[in-house]
């Protein structure tokens, strides 16, 4: 079932193909009324049917997803435009008074042919994954030949280099019209070789080759006649074949990959502890967390757990890269950190041991910035270590926010011999600590201006009397307002720790089920 598209470009593309189909159909009626033009009725029928099929084909691929989808839709629009221009040319042929208009239409048709051939190459390259030296050379050669061809065709405005419209309004070639075929020949030969050399399935290769073979056969049979509807009919037939074999096949592969990624995202989400924990033995400790990945799976993570009856450990980390590799490294790092947190008594020892372990067999060069803290609920002493992570924000009750800029060592998995240090602070009732990843401060707007630490501090100053959930929501809302119209580039993860009494902090004593019922 085709869903209503949200992308404006799809709506414009569909509207354009429908408009061109209507244009061809309306213009075609004149050929039935004028006996002098009825020799073109077959071509008119091909134009009309072809343009309608283009509109239907575009509509059919609107819900599809996969490699090269945008280029394929553009190809459909250009083929539809070819039918429309072809129909308009027939309306001006053999009419001396419309020689200039006929010439302009011929130029436009030739220009569209050039772009259409290049779009085909780009589509097949993206779907069949061309590789090797020939592919790199083709990427360089085709644009140069295309520009040369544009110049050759445009030169006919000043002098009949390759074609002209004679006094009777008929299209005529010159003796060197073969110059117009250089780009076509080079593109056809190079693309055909790359298609055959690709590692794609045989049916996909065969479908791609039809775009080259069908028009070439028609070109030979019609002896290179320009303005013949059959050539665009062959192109459309090839598009239909490619749609059935390549386009829908790639879409199915993408849907399958998306389903697998959704499962991976669910597994990753389940691996994280609840965002609103309750420490029954420590009601003065309120912890609130949030994570928003830029892709289905990400590399940011948070964690917390009780080391013993008095101490609570919590941490935040940001793995290099994005997607599946970062997610796998994230799961490994999270497990190792938690294991070593129970084996060692200090944050410095935990990160030193974790770093040595992560450096083993790290051939991909992955790493993670991280911050870990252990809070003693008896004395409210916080011991912490920062491994190259963003500095947390400390919000003392009744005082301005300040950045805890101390860094105790290199990021994790960076250098095996790194030895980490630690610091301690004492937290008082009402104090708050905000941890975050660089997805917060490095979020950027349309002008590439970053969100930055100053805006973060300003947002936090306005949330001093708010609960932990409200703090997270305020930062999230401010980032959305700042980045409106810009896709999320990086994962955004935050942890808010509040100790003691603070206005609107009553939610910390509630169970997660009650919080969910209230929409928290």
Explain this structure to me?
With 520 residues, the chain is of the alpha+beta class. It folds into two domains: 8-259; 273-517, Phosphatase 2c, domain 1 (4-Layer Sandwich). Helix content is 52%, strand content 13%. The protein contains 14 helices and twelve strands. The protein has helices at 8-33, 41-60, 69-92, 99-128, 133-154, 182-197, 202-221, 229-271, 323-343, 347-359, 438-441, 452-461, 468-482, 512-517; strands spanning 163-165, 171-173, 285-292, 300-306, 311-319, 368-376, 381-387, 393-395, 401-403, 423-426, 432-436, 492-499. The strands form three sheets. A five-stranded antiparallel β-sheet has the order 3-12-11-8-9. Strands 4-5-6-7-10 form a five-stranded antiparallel β-sheet, covered by helices on one side. Helix 3 (69-92) packs antiparallel against helix 4 (99-128), helix 4 packs antiparallel against helix 5 and helix 7 packs antiparallel against helix 8 (229-271). The radius of gyration is 32 Å and the shape is elongated. The model is unreliable at 1-5 and 509-520 (pLDDT under 50).
Quick check: average pLDDT? Answer: 84
Helix content: 40-55%
Poorly predicted runs of 5 or more residues = 1-5, 509-520
Largest sheet: 5 strands, antiparallel
Number of β-strand runs: 12
Put simply, the count of helices is 14
Name the overall outline: elongated
User: How many domains, as an integer?
Assistant: 2
End-to-end separation? 35 Å
Secondary structure category: alpha+beta
If strands are numbered along the chain, what order do they take across the biggest sheet? Answer: 3-12-11-8-9
Sketch the topology as an H/E string, one letter per element: HHHHHEEHHHEEEHHEEEEEEHHHEH
Query: How much of the sequence is in beta strands?
Result: 5-15%
The radius of gyration is: 32 Å
């Amino acid at each position: 079932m085709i869903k209503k598209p949200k992308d404006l470009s799809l709506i414009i593309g569909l509207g354009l193909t429908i408009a061109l189909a209507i244009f061809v159909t309306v213009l075609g009626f004149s050929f039935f009324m004028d006996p002098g033009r009825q020799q073109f009725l077959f071509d008119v029928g091909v134009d009309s049917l072809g343009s309608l099929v283009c509109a239907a084909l575009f509509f059919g691929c609107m819900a599809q997803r996969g490699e090269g989808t945008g280029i394929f839709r553009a190809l459909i629009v250009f083929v539809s435009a070819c039918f429309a221009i072809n129909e308009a040319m027939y309306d001006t042929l053999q009419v001396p008074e419309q020689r200039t208009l006929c010439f302009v239409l011929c130029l436009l048709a030739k220009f569209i042919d050039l772009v259409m051939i290049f779009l085909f190459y780009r589509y097949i390259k993206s779907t069949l994954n061309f590789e090797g030296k020939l592919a790199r050379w083709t990427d360089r050669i085709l644009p140069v030949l295309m520009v040369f061809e544009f110049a050759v065709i445009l030169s006919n405005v000043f002098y009949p280099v390759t074609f002209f419209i004679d006094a009777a309004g008929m299209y005529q070639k010159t003796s060197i019209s073969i110059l117009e075929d250089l780009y076509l020949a080079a593109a056809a030969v190079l693309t055909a070789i790359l298609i055959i050399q690709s590692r794609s399935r045989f049916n996909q290769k065969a479908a791609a080759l039809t775009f080259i073979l069908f028009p070439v056969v028609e070109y030979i049979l019609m002896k290179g006649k320009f303005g013949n509807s059959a050539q665009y009919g062959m192109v459309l037939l090839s598009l239909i074949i490619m749609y059935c074999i390549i386009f829908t096949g790639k879409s199915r592969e993408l849907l399958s990959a998306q389903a697998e990624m959704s499962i991976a995202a669910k597994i990753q989400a389940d691996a994280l502890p609840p965002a609103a924990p309750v420490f029954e033995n420590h009601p003065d400790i309120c912890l609130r967390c949030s994570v928003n990945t830029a892709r289905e799976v990400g590399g940011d993570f948070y964690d917390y757990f009780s080391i013993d009856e008095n101490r609570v450990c919590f941490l935040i980390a940001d793995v290099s890269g994005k997607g599946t590799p970062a997610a796998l490294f994230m799961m490994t790092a999270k497990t190792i950190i938690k294991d070593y947190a129970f084996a060692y008594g200090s944050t410095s020892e935990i990160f030193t041991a974790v770093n040595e372990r992560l450096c083993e067999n790290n051939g991909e060069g992955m790493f993670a910035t991280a911050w870990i803290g252990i809070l003693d609920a008896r004395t409210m002493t916080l011991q912490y270590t920062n491994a190259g992570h963003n500095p947390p924000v400390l919000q003392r009750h009744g005082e301005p926010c300040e950045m805890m800029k101390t860094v105790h060592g290199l990021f994790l998995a960076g250098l095996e011999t790194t030895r980490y240090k630690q610091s301690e602070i004492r937290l008082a009732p009402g104090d708050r600590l905000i941890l975050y990843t660089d997805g917060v401060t490095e979020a950027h707007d349309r002008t590439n201006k970053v969100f930055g630490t100053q805006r973060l501090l300003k947002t936090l100053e306005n949330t001093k009397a708010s609960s932990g959930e409200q703090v997270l929501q305020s930062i999230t809302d401010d980032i959305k307002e700042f980045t409106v119209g810009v896709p999320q580039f990086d994962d955004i993860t935050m942890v808010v720790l509040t100790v003691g009494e603070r206005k609107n902090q009553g939610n910390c004593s509630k169970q997660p089920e009650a919080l969910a019922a209230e929409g928290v």
